[in-house]
Amino acid sequence: MTYNPNPDRYKNTEYNRSGNSGLLLPPVSLGLWHNFGHVDDFDTGRETLLTAFDQGVIHFDLANNYGPPPGSAEENFGKILKNDLAPYRDELIISTKAGYLMWDGPYGEWGSRKYLLASLDQSLKRLGLEYVDIFYSHRFDPDTPLEETMGALAHAVKQGKAIYAGISNYDPDSTARAAEILQSLGTPCVIHQARYSMLDRWVEKGLLNTLDEKGIGCIAFSPLAQGLLTNKYLKDIPENSRAASPYGFLQKSAVTPKLVEVLNKLNNLAAERGQSLAQMALSWVLKDPRVTSVLIGARNKEQLLDSMKCMENTGFSGEELNMIDGYLEEL
Prior knowledge:
Elements: E1 16-17, E2 24-25, E3 28-31, H1 42-54, E4 59-61, H2 72-85, E5 93-98, H3 113-127, E6 132-137, H4 146-159, E7 162-168, H5 172-184, E8 189-195, H6 207-214, E9 217-221, H7 257-272, H8 277-286, E10 291-296, H9 301-308, H10 318-329
Parallel strand pairs: 3-4, 3-10, 4-5, 5-6, 6-7, 7-8, 8-9, 9-10
Antiparallel strand pairs: 1-2
């Protein structure tokens, strides 16, 4: 069936500027870290992606190792792009990254020029693209000169294989140095992808200030703390949840009785605001003007549409913020 996008997809969506750049992103972007690999249902992923575009979500975030297996999220997205979204390529912001383990040998991870540029070529092949809109260094490499890593990003932009350069998971000092190097190479760093949620606020300890000073936008990943900030864990650990799986980042040990108590307090406050816990958690991250966008993962279109309702109430009173901080201090 031929895909015909919603003609009113831009009618009710406002886009945020990433730092001082010309890059504009929707408040909610779709990340393909989970749910889009070969182990997942392709038709469900396709429906979720197209529903997102119908709602004005133009940014789709990938990395070389997303799947599983690694690379399969890019392959699946490439199929959807070719069959459904190709006519709208110039409306899309597609990103990918390199930094984590992708293949065997000394050049299969980290931040060398060889690895980054080889990985980008592989990503473009899987995606079926000539360029991506954002190419990230996925993590800081302590053993490779930062000049080499940033030089690879700048080279990718100058080659025409990426439009913008970005970094992810860099601390404030490394971020400042990376930005200065990229600026000297004529390829400004326009965005930093950082983990940020109510339960993980490390970016508030300097990174957001650094980004603001350098004119760099921030896009937050894991704003729901791997699903903890949803209604899944208000009573126990569901069998089909991430915490119940022996694999992945979220383990059963993280779901403590105290955390469940705090989650229920936050959930009650969200209900008073007319939101679900997940919607309030997303709104909370977006309240900071230094945050350009939040990346959500969605198992299906219903979950996507529910998360996007966070934009209906992004304001917080001082009392609400104090209540949230008080609850979180209990952890």
